[in-house]
Write a structure and sequence with these properties.
β24 and β25 form a beta hairpin. Helix content is about 0%, strand content about 40%. It starts with a strand and ends with a helix. It contains one helix and 32 strands. The protein has two domains: about 5-210, Sandwich (Jelly Rolls), CATH 2.60.120.200; about 230-440, SPRY domain (Jelly Rolls), CATH 2.60.120.920. The radius of gyration is 24 Å and the shape is elongated. By secondary structure, the chain is mostly beta strands.
């Protein structure tokens, strides 16, 4: 959602004195990022954002702070969903304002409360921005789900979420009871679910929002978390700066700056499928895609003893620094399909939905027809792995781990997928699934 936000002009809500915001957020980068804001100017606004130090900050500023809350905790996880609930009630003799994350009330390093009956920037006819607090910069780099903005009522985190009795994880309640009737008619619920209009608004007020930038829908959500590329688990010279589009787009390096990045999720068993689309003209052939044990050792993908990647330049599989004839070379725009069978330690590749390379059959089980055999991982798991082998270009690789997009472009025709976990361009082999929370639990 970077460089994208939605907004609407609010009606004055008088002095109801109460507000609740609830939203699920999956971050893609660190530093100061806006979640939402009620914005008039630099002197009059209310905002909710991640700070430069990755604390959560919730405040109201009217030529000075009249309410300000800063969490002690920092939120640096780029692979998981956070459920954030903020509320306040300044009708009380001792006004309160709270921040919850994943159901836990946060302790605060800064704790400035409203005075009773204060005029609030959150309850007036300013512009409500979502995905940016100001509507001009300060964009959230990540994904939002289930955004509630409720004026006139205070709801706690338990209204919107609960602890799963099996996993112990915090999860969303699918149909909480919410009163949208606060003065001004500004209360809303944005599901971002319906591909036609993103369910803007799916509360009872049927509000109209303006979209700025490209609002992209993904199947990744708080109830089903999909793997992305992990900027903290790289090899060679790769870094967070090489990633974009929710950490699903990787841009390689030119020259001899070999680099690569692993998926945020890994598995010890099961069968998983992913797709990678390479672009960047002639440089696209320098991309490498496959699996690895997650230990980069500063080397190029395919140089490690337990890296197994196909090299776009010649279609060879590279492992431990050596290449073996396997498939065919790539051109810009090709989609490489990767199927990894960790029950039998077998790996398969194909291009653009055609026959599997080396006459492979991912459904052949322990026989491993046409497969590349994997050694037992020293880390106990394998990740998906993409990277580049230098060269004169700066190629780009867009990963589809089931999110249904290559970069910001939706797949053109959805293939069959018996697991129903994720959306892929081509048919998913029988018995394989997405590397996601539901896929891992099959």
């Amino acid at each position: 959602m970077a460089a994208t936000h939605i907004s609407r002009s609010m009606a004055t809500n008088g002095n109801s004195g109460k507000l609740t915001i609830s939203v699920w957020v999956k971050r893609s980068s660190l530093g100061e990022k806006g979640i939402c804001g009620s914005w008039y100017s630099g002197a009059y606004h209310g905002i909710l954002y991640f700070s430069t130090n990755n604390n959560l900050v919730f405040y109201d500023y009217r030529n000075g702070y009249i309410m300000r809350k800063v969490t002690n905790a920092t939120f640096r996880d780029l692979n998981s969903w956070y459920h954030i609930v903020c509320n306040f009630d300044h009708t009380l003799g001792s006004p309160t304002a709270k921040i919850y994350v994943n159901g836990e009330l946060q302790s605060l390093s800064t704790d400035t409360n409203y005075s009773q009956g204060a005029t609030s920037s959150w309850l007036t006819d300013y512009t409500l921005n979502i995905g940016s607090y100001s509507g001009s910069g300060n964009y959230l780099d990540g994904i939002l789900a289930d955004f509630y903005f409720i004026q006139g009522y205070v709801y706690e985190a338990s209204t919107f979420g609960e602890t799963d009795s099996t996993s112990g994880f915090w999860k969303p309640k699918l149909d909480p009871t919410i009163n949208y009737g606060g003065t001004g008619g500004n209360s809303c619920h944005l599901k971002f679910e319906n591909s036609a209009n993103m369910d803007l608004d799916s509360g009872s007020n049927n509000l109209t929002f303006t979209t700025s930038g490209t609002l992209t829908q993904t199947v990744d959500n708080p109830s089903h978390n999909f793997t992305t590329l992990n900027p903290y688990q790289t090899t060679g010279n790769a870094s967070l700066n090489d990633l974009a589009n929710g950490n699903l787009t990787y841009t390689g390096h030119s020259g001899t700056s070999y680099s690569g990045v692993y998926s945020s999720f890994a598995a010890a068993s099961g069968k998983y499928y992913a797709e990678f689309k390479c672009t960047g003209g002639a440089g696209a052939v320098d991309m490498m895609m496959g699996v690895g044990n997650g230990i980069g050792n500063g080397t190029a993908p395919g140089a490690g003893a337990q890296d197994y990647v196909i090299f776009g330049y010649d279609g060879k599989i590279y492992n431990n620094g050596s290449g073996s004839t396997y498939g065919t070379a790539l051109t810009s725009g090709d989609i490489i399909c990767v199927a990894v069978d960790l029950d039998n330690n077998k790996l398969y590749f194909r291009k653009n939905g055609d026959a599997w390379f080396n006459s492979g059959n991912p459904e052949s089980g322990s026989t491993g027809t046409g497969a590349q055999t994997l050694s037992a991982s020293t880390t106990g798991v394998y990740h998906f792995l993409i990277g580049d082998y230098g060269g004169s270009g700066t190629p780009t690789c867009n990963a589809n781990f089931g999110n249904g997009f290559f970069g910001t472009t939706a797949i053109t025709s959805e293939g069959t997928n018996a697991s129903n976990h994720g959306k892929f361009e081509y048919d998913v082999p029988t018995g394989y699934t997405a590397l996601s929370t539901k896929g891992l639990n099959e």
